[in-house]
Design a protein that fits this description.
Number of helices: 6
Oligomer: single chain
Shape: elongated
CATH class of the largest domain: Alpha Beta
Helix content: 10-25%
Order of helices and strands: EHHEEEEEEEEHEHEEEEHEEEH
Length: 245
């Protein structure tokens, strides 16, 4: 280095991004935790929002040591009988068992599928993307194949297109129809709501009982070439499409 030439600043990753990549939360939420004094760098409380974490730094969040991980994105075709929890005190099978060999990164499920519900479930350690996809305004559309206990009236389909008030919120779908080539007990419906059990609550409100519920599309991702109980990593193109929603 020539005399008088300024030394280059050590590169690093911003602290909020480091926390997000560790799978704790989104960067925006990380900023709040930093302000609250919940983050330590090298055993000192760090409240500097723009601090860049260097390779030798040791970061703790709420007493837990963090490791920045490479962002990981996994898609599972969930079978029946598994709950969407990272662990279960009652000893029930969780979806984490199905993706145990997918990565060493600490991925978590984005959203929930009930124990009897099958279909697509997305996992990541990217806190920002997880937060985005669970936001009802993200445009992340979900398509369900619903099998009901009786024939669905055409008037009820229209009612769903117009909007149905359930638990104080209006649920509507302009993309709802009978499944082609099947009985009129089988419906395809696209929903954007991220509320838990939204599809079940919708049809139960109209007097139907769901016999089977399968999530066949999530945020543009499909079950193509992904058998039940299997998982795969997303392609770079798919990741970029999710981030562009």
């Amino acid at each position: 280095m020539k005399k008088g030439q300024p030394q280059k600043e050590t590169t690093g990753i911003r602290l909020n991004k480091f926390i997000a990549h560790a799978g704790i939360c989104s960067r925006r939420e990380a900023d709040m935790h930093i302000q609250l004094g919940m983050v330590k760098v090298n055993n000192k409380v760090m409240t500097e929002m723009g601090y860049k974490v260097k390779p030798a730094d040791v970061v703790h969040f709420d007493g837990r040591k963090l490791q920045s991980e490479k962002p990981t994105y996994v898609l599972l075709n969930k079978p029946k009988g598994f709950i969407t929890n990272t662990r279960d005190e009652k000893g029930r099978k969780t979806v984490m068992e199905l993706v145990a060999n997918a990565t060493k990164a600490r991925i978590v499920p984005v959203g929930r599928l009930e124990r009897p519900t099958t279909g697509l479930l997305f996992f990541t350690n990217d806190g920002d993307l997880a937060k985005k996809l669970t936001n009802p305004n993200s445009g992340a559309k979900t398509l369900y194949h619903v099998v009901l206990d009786k024939v669905v009236k055409t008037g009820d389909l229209q009612q769903i297109r117009d909007g149905v008030s359930v638990d104080g919120s209006v649920i509507k779908s302009e993309e709802i129809s009978y499944v082609q080539g099947a009985s009129k007990r089988e419906i395809g419906v696209a929903l954007q709501s991220s509320r838990n059990r939204v599809a079940r609550k919708l049809f139960e409100h109209l007097g139907y009982e769901i016999v089977a519920l399968d999530r066949v599309m999530f945020a543009g991702l499909t079950k193509k070439d992904l058998p039940r109980g299997h998982w795969r990593h997303l392609t770079q193109t798919e990741v970029q499409q999710l981030k562009m929603l």
